Amino acid sequence: KPEMRVRLKKIIRSVEQTNRSSAQLLEHAMVLYRAEKKEREKCKVNQIIEKIIDNYRPAADLRDIKIEVKLLTSKDITILLDRTLLELALRNLIDNAIKYSPAEDIISIYSDLAENNQYKISIENRSEKSIELNKEQLFKRFSRGTNHNDIIGTGLGLAIASEAVRALKGKINIEIQKGKKLCAILQLPLF
Which three-class secondary structure state does DSSP give residue 71? Predict the structure, then answer.
C-alpha cells in the first residue's frame, strides 16, 4: 500500500503540473492577444483587487495564510485600462505569494498613489528561505527561482505579470526586504 500511495501522489502531482502549465500557457497567449488589441475601459482598481483577493482566500486558508489588505481609502479611483490584463497580473502575483509563503503566515497587499502620478499596488510575502533574485532571469518565460523545491510551477507567472503590466504601460518590480521578505510592486499610470 505505501508504494501505491507514493505512486498515486506522483500521478496527482503530474496532473496538477499539467493543469497549471496549460492554464498558464493560455494566460500567456491571452496577454499577447490583449496587448495588441489595446482595449481599455474605466475600472475601479480597488474593486478588482478585492475581487481577486476574495477568489484566492480559500487557497490561502488551506495553508492558514492570512491576507492583510490596506487599499487606498478612496474606493472611487478609476483608471482607464484593460481589466483582463490587470487581473492576470494580480492573479499571478497573489498566486506566487501564496505558494511561496510559509504556512500560517501573512501576505500584505497595499495600494497607494506614487509620486509620479501612478497607482501603486504592493504585494508582500515572506519566504522560508533566504532569497536571491537574478534580476535578468526574474521575468523571463519558464525561469524559476532557487527556492521552489516541491512547489508546482511553470516559470510563467512572473513573465505573464510583467508582460501584462507592460501592456498596461505600467511598471513591475520585485524587491527583497530583510533577506526573506519579497515585495512585488506594480505601478500603473493614472490616465
Answer: coil
Count the Cβ atoms, other than its own, within 10 Å of residue 110: 17
**What ranges in the chain are assigned the alpha helix state H?**
2-37, 45-62, 83-100, 157-167
**In the block, residue with C-alpha cell 516559470:** 155
Say what the pTM is: 0.81
Residues 6+ apart with CB under 8 A from 125: 97, 98, 100, 101, 105, 107, 108, 181, 182
Tell the residue number behind the cell numbers 492554464, with chain if given: 23
Nearest Cα residue to 15 out of 184, 152, 161: 152
Q: What confidence tens digit (pLDDT) does each residue in 154-170 have?
A: 566 788 899 999 999 99
pLDDT band at 64 (very low <50, low <70, confident <90, very high): very high
Average pLDDT rounded to a whole number, residues 114-127: 88
Condensed to tens digits (0 to 9), the pLDDT of residues 39-53 reads 888 999 999 999 999
Q: How many CA atoms lie within 13 A of 17 on its CB side?
A: 12
Burial of 42 (0-12, 13-18, 19+ CB in 10 A): exposed
- Asked if residue 72 lies in contact with residue 46, where contact means CB atoms within 8 angstroms, the answer is yes
Displacement of CA 170 from its chain's centroid (Å): 15
Cα-atom radius of gyration of the chain, to the nearest Å?
17
